[in-house]
Structure to design on (165 residues):
């Protein structure tokens, strides 16, 4: 169930990236953060990849993100990385989701390591991705680029009236 939701969400990202131009993908003109869609996609994939690469070693370190600039600057490369991430997610076994794994992050007051299940960290990465999709939606709106998927960037618990507005 977690993988299906994540896969569907990543599929939305792939479709979106297939419809926007390279110029829009790397545009950093939108305030207040001046971040690009590519930067958000890279960040989203970094979190998933920390979980996927750290799980076999039983050490998920969210501080040690790769921050590959190719994902940020090259739409085709980003799409390929999304496909790779989807493939890695689909290769997980059902029993993996209940495995306890230490997760290290800096929550703002210093580095902490907490025990998660793999399913919990992937669910957190999914929620994190949706929120970044909302920022991407904002960037596209300011750039006057229509998002045809009206659920893009909305949490599934968002009341439907608000999504349709």
């Amino acid at each position: 169930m977690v993988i299906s939701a994540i896969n569907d969400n990543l599929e939305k990202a792939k479709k979106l990236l297939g419809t926007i131009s390279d110029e829009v993908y790397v545009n950093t003109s939108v305030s207040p953060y001046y971040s690009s869609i590519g930067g958000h996609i890279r960040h989203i994939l970094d979190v998933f990849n920390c979980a996927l690469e750290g799980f076999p070693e039983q050490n998920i370190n969210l501080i040690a993100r790769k921050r590959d600039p190719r994902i940020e600057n090259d739409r085709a490369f980003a799409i390929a990385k999304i496909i790779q991430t989807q493939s890695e997610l689909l290769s997980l076994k059902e029993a993996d989701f209940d495995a306890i794994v230490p997760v290290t992050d800096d929550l703002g007051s210093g580095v902490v390591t907490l025990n998660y299940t793999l399913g919990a960290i992937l669910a957190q990465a999914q929620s994190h991705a949706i929120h970044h999709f909302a920022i991407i939606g904002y960037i596209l709106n300011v750039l006057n680029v229509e998002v045809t998927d009206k659920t893009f960037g909305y949490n599934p618990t968002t009341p439907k009236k608000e999504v349709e507005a």
Q: What stands out?
A: The first strand starts at residue 60 and ends at 61. The mean pLDDT is 94.
